[in-house]
Write a structure and sequence with these properties.
five-stranded parallel beta sheet, 180 residues, Rossmann fold, 36% helix, alpha/beta, binds flavin mononucleotide
């Protein structure tokens, strides 16, 4: 286990216990220090209603699990966000959540924090690029320092467990976290 002082929050946007969870759990298990992993599928996350209260008051008034997750993002130093490729995009689950981070947008609350993005697709990594581009866009629009986007290829759950190249990529992510 590697002791890293930075407070790290990992967020899985997969609706199932599959490859994204596998990667994030591996990273999580390798790290010491302050860390938490959140599986969005276990949370109540309502769609953004578009009321723009977040623009006026810097706050969302919806009553579900999102406020608690946003608090954790506020205190985290590094975010790791993982999504499967669903039709060349992030999952609807993750998109619903990212839309709800709008209260951070106006005042750039996340500015200066670090982020690593993780994308898993059943097709080639090249085909998942649009998903990574979207997550990188999110990072940029929230003022996050982007440490990189990592692509994995797997279709069935647990497929990555026997993949040596995936283990190497996971180790690269861990090394990147140690270097900052
Ligand atoms: C609705 C749906 C759409 C998908 N679309 C794509 C796609 O466009 N490109 C791709 O490479 N994989 C696609 N996949 C495959 C998933 O990305 C793949 O199964 C991945 O391992 C899922 O990650 P998970 O195990 O973390 O849930 C899709 C899967 C589903 C269920």
């Amino acid at each position: 286990m590697i002791e890293i002082m930075a407070n790290i929050l990992l967020i899985s946007g997969s609706p199932r216990k599959g490859n994204t969870d596998f990667i994030l759990k591996k990273i999580f298990q390798s790290l010491g220090g302050d860390k938490e992993i959140i599986f969005l599928r276990n949370k109540e996350i309502r769609h953004c209603s578009g009321c723009l209260s977040c623009h006026r008051f810097g706050k969302c008034f919806m009553n579900d699990d999102v406020a608690k997750i946003l608090d954790k993002m506020r205190t985290a130093k590094t975010l790791i966000i993982g999504s499967p490729n669903y039709f060349d995009n992030i999952t609807g689950l993750l998109k619903d959540f990212l839309d709800r981070t709008s209260p951070f947008y106006q005042k750039k609350v996340l500015e200066g924090k670090m982020i690593i993005n993780v994308v898993v697709g059943g097709g080639s990594k090249k085909h998942s690029k649009r998903v990574g581009d979207y997550l990188n866009y999110f990072a940029e629009s929230q003022g996050l320092i982007n440490l990189g986007c990592y692509y994995f290829r797997a279709l069935e759950p647990q497929e990555l467990e026997e993949s040596h190249s995936s283990v190497r990529a996971i180790n690269n992510i861990i090394a990147k976290l140690c270097a900052v």
